[in-house]
Write a structure and sequence with these properties.
The chain is built from 6 helices and 14 strands. It is of the alpha+beta class and 283 residues long. The protein has one domain: Jelly Rolls (Sandwich), CATH 2.60.120. Strands 1, 2, 3, 4, 7, 10, 12 and 14 form an 8-stranded antiparallel sheet that branches. A 4-stranded antiparallel sheet has the order 5-11-8-9, with no helix packed on it. The radius of gyration is 18 Å and the shape is globular. Bound molecules: 2-oxoglutaric acid (AKG). 2-oxoglutaric acid is lined by residues 101, 111, 116, 129, 131, 222, 224, 235, 237.
Length: 283
């Protein structure tokens, strides 16, 4: 077992849980070196989303394991698919994609309140992320914050894209990919500043040390604020698909994997080993 019974219960009740020391320091150092190399030479999906006249740098990149052998090795070496299996109660766990998030000191850009589900082309209840801290961080230093229990609200909110808080649909589409404007218009519910309603919403934040993992449901509301700490904040998220994950493409969802990349039909349970590799199996 990688998780305690209490951690599994917390994950299912709150939609998020801290798993301290989930990855050892040698592996953290390997991942951080790979992130440094990536920041110097991003993939076709990578970018610094901080505007030229703003301080710091919010660097994002994703879907690295198919093209970067170091990231391919992390998928199995860190054993985080087993954590996702325990958390979601799945016999089999597949990888959807990996994603890098770096905020240099002074970065003002937020990734404001959002759920991951509306960005993605999958559906189900056994889908989660393992966000590995490569540096220490507290909330002022851009640690993740969550609205406790929001994964169970049964509501999908209009997605907010990194560093694009409140962007209108056309503006979002001009910066990102085709279809986003229609995608955004499809959601009636718009996020509010949950922290302004402490009697209604409980916000939990996880200060982290290198090697800690924050495990969270893809439906839970979460954010990262700017980095006002004196040091860099770096993390990698792996996105895991458990037993009930189904293929659910929609116009404007993240184009890293589209209908052209899979033999699955919408609604099919995910079984396509070429596009969604099976990383953990209990059998
Ligand atoms: O680390 C960040 O800045 C954002 C991470 C996030 O939203 C995620 O992993 O889903």
């Amino acid at each position: 077992m990688r998780l305690t019974t209490g951690q599994v219960e917390t994950f299912r009740r709150d939609g998020c849980v801290l798993v301290p020391d989930a990855v050892d320091r040698d592996d953290v150092a390997r991942v951080l070196e790979a992130v440094d190399r990536l920041q110097a030479s991003p993939s076709k999906h990578g970018a610094n989303v901080t505007k030229a006249d703003k301080p710091g740098e919010y660097f994002l990149d994703r879907y690295l394991y198919p093209t970067h052998p170091d990231f391919e090795a992390f998928v199995t070496d860190l054993n985080l698919a087993a954590v996702a299996a325990e958390a979601t109660g799945s016999d089999n766990v597949r990888l959807y994609f990996d994603q890098v998030f770096v905020k240099e000191p002074g970065t003002e850009e937020q990734f404001s309140w959002h759920q991951d589900r509306p960005f993605w082309a999958v559906d189900g209840e056994q889908i989660c992320s393992t966000w590995l801290a490569l540096t220490s961080a507290d909330a002022a230093g851009s640690a993740l914050e969550f609205v406790r229990g929001s994964h169970l609200w049964g509501v999908d909110y209009r997605p907010e894209y990194p560093a694009m808080k409140g962007a209108d649909p056309e503006e979002a589409e001009s910066h990102l990919w085709d279809g986003i404007a229609d995608h955004l218009r499809a959601y009636d519910q718009v996020v509010v500043d949950f922290e302004d309603f402490p009697d209604t919403y409980e916000i939990v934040s996880f200060p982290v040390e290198p090697g800690d993992v924050v495990l969270f449901d893809y439906r839970v509301m979460h954010r990262s604020r700017g980095n006002s700490a004196a040091h860099r904040r770096a993390a990698v998220s792996w996105r895991w698909l458990g037993d009930d994950a189904a293929w659910a493409p929609t116009v404007g969802s993240d184009p890293i994997i589209t209908q052209a990349d899979t033999s699955l039909s919408p609604g099919d349970l995910i079984t396509d080993n070429d596009t969604f590799p099976l990383i953990f199996s209990a059998r």
